[in-house]
């Protein structure tokens, strides 16, 4: 048992060191360049030499390995730096290039946002971001010839817009673009097929529901955020925006659906596991594969793996492994993606704060799952509150009540919405009947959100400094460490 705990702590320390290396690099990014990698290699070689000579010294060996993982984290962040041929080097210049739409277009009421990857044959490299009119509409994989003024992203007041775009590997903005479509068929063929299917699903949704309900269903099924209009502001005021943003909650619903369906079809458990994992991966791509969606998918797969193996006894290792894997893919999400941070903190709250609150909520009735809903809502709300106040400068006073009222209905709407779209391919009238039932369920959620969102005290504007965020989490994690044990999942 002690050996297992020792290995578990060692694994946690190595992953933490890797993440710490990324943090150090981001903080001191201005002092690093591509020439700095030579120094890091020398430090790594020195650590390896000492490691060989001090192999029998357990503490020294452990410390050197931690340093090595931290350097790997710095290397990973360094590889994300723009190259010398980056389009960002053309800042302030008018330039012409050819590239292709490298991600799903972000369609909004006022226009469409595109990310274009410049062809390797061009003078510059990298990705550019630009806004265009609703029409003509370009799709993923379309080849575009562009002429525009290049602008390097900069912070907007307190918002690090430049760092936010780094999450998508965008290195420059393309202003006043002249765009001509000259071809199609670029990008990943699997992604093209998935997005084509997604467009078909969107068409079916628009047949059965009008706005904002069509966007509501689309938000639940694949994370679409446009078209909600005034409802989006009311979601923000009542603290339930997360229900239309793909998160671990949605992934849990998806994985449970697959496992229940396959079990009823008498599919062997081992085969059902691989099918469910494949389903989560497809759903992740379908939803756009953003940082929070990928994090939720990784956690969902880890939980499924735990069920397959019998238990998940170290959620801390699962969480930090999830963070490390995401940062291997894109190191920018660690410090500059608020959605990833909030989603990650909410998961920590559900795992570690639930046991703390269970004893304090013992008098709450269990009827209709009220106690469990309250504990889960409070766990996620409390642990994300400091970051929300710092990032968004708004406190939703009614968040806990609204979440308790609407969350039980979310999986119902999600299942019914999915069933409606699926049945629509076979029977319009059956799908129409099901869409009315789905609409009634959505109406329940919308009316609750609308009622609480209209209250003058529903939310208040308040912000806290960054140092207070750090102090809050230091106190919070200290209390959790002393007074609770994480949930051990015997699955």
Question: How many helical elements?
Answer: 18
Number of strands: 8
Major β-sheet annotation: 5 strands, mixed, barrel
Mean pLDDT: 78
SSE string: HHHEEEEEHEHHHHHHHHHHEHHHEH
In terms of quaternary structure, the protein is single chain
Radius of gyration computed on alpha carbons? 24 Å
Outline the low-pLDDT stretches: none
Helix % is 55-70%
Derived from helix and strand composition plus strand pairing, the structural class reads: alpha+beta
What order do the strands of the largest sheet run in, or round the barrel if closed?
1-3-4-6-5
The percent range for strand residues is 5-15%
N→C terminal distance: 20 Å
The tally of domains stands at 3
Q: Name the overall outline.
A: globular
Give a written overview of the molecule.
This protein is α+β, with helices and mostly antiparallel strands and 491 residues long. The chain has three domains: 2-79; 87-187, OB fold (Dihydrolipoamide Acetyltransferase, E2P); 201-247 and 319-483, no CATH class. It has helices at 2-27, 37-53, 58-79, 161-166, 189-208, 213-222, 230-238, 248-264, 269-286, 291-309, 315-329, 333-336, 338-360, 370-391, 399-406, 410-424, 428-453, 466-483; strands spanning 94-101, 106-108, 111-118, 127-132, 143-151, 170-183, 394-396, 459-461. The chain has a five-stranded mixed barrel. Strands 7-8 form a two-stranded antiparallel ribbon. A hairpin with a 2-residue loop joins strand 2 and strand 3 (111-118). Helix 5 packs antiparallel against helix 6 (213-222), helix 10 (291-309) crosses helix 11 (315-329) and helix 16 packs antiparallel against helix 17. The radius of gyration is 24 Å and the shape is globular. The mean pLDDT is 78.
């Amino acid at each position: 048992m002690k050996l297992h705990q020792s290995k578990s702590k060692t694994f946690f320390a190595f992953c933490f060191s890797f993440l710490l290396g990324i943090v150090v690099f981001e903080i001191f990014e201005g002092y690093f360049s591509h020439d700095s990698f030579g120094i890091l290699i020398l430090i790594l070689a020195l650590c390896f030499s000492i490691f060989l000579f001090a192999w029998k010294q357990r503490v020294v060996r452990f410390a050197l390995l931690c340093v090595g993982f931290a350097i790997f984290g710095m290397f990973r962040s360094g590889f994300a730096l723009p190259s010398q041929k980056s389009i960002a080097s053309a800042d302030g210049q008018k330039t012409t290039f050819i590239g292709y739409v490298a991600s799903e277009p972000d369609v909004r009421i006022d226009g469409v946002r595109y990310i274009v990857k410049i062809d390797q044959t061009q003078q510059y490299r990298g990705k550019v971001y630009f806004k265009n009119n609703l029409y003509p509409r370009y799709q993923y994989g379309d080849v575009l010839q562009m002429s525009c003024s290049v602008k390097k992203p900069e912070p907007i007041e307190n918002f690090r817009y430049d760092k936010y775009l780094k999450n998508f590997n965008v290195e420059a903005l393309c202003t006043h673009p002249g765009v001509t479509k000259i071809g199609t068929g670029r990008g990943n063929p699997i992604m093209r097929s998935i997005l084509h299917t997604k467009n078909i699903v969107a068409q079916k949704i628009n047949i059965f529901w009008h706005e904002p309900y069509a966007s509501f269903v689309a938000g639940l099924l694949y994370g679409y955020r446009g078209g909600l209009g005034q409802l989006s502001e009311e979601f923000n005021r009542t603290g339930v925006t997360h229900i239309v943003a793909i998160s671990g909650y949605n992934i849990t619903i998806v994985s449970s659906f697959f496992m229940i369906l396959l079990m009823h079809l008498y599919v062997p458990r081992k085969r059902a596991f691989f099918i469910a994992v494949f389903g989560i991966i497809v759903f992740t791509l379908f939803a756009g594969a953003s940082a929070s969606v990928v994090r939720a998918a990784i956690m969902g797969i880890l939980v499924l793996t735990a069920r397959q193996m019998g238990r998940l006894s170290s959620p801390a290792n699962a969480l930090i492994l999830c963070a490390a894997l995401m940062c291997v893919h894109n190191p920018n999400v660690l410090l500059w993606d608020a959605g990833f941070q909030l989603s990650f903190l909410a998961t920590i709250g559900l795992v570690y704060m639930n046991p703390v609150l269970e004893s304090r909520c013992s008098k709450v009735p269990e009827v209709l799952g009220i106690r469990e809903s309250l504990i889960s809502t409070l766990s996620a709300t409390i642990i994300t509150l400091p970051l929300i106040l710092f990032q968004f400068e708004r406190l939703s006073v009614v968040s806990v009540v609204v979440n308790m009222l609407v969350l039980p209905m979310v999986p119902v709407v999600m299942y019914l919405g999915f069933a409606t779209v699926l049945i629509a391919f076979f029977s319009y009238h059956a799908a129409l009947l099901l869409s009315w039932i789905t609409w009634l369920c959505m109406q329940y959620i919308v009316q609750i959100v609308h009622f609480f969102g209209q209250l003058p005290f529903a939310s208040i504007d308040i912000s806290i400094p960054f140092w207070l965020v750090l102090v809050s989490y230091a106190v919070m994690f200290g209390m959790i460490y002393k007074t609770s044990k994480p949930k051990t999942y015997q699955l």
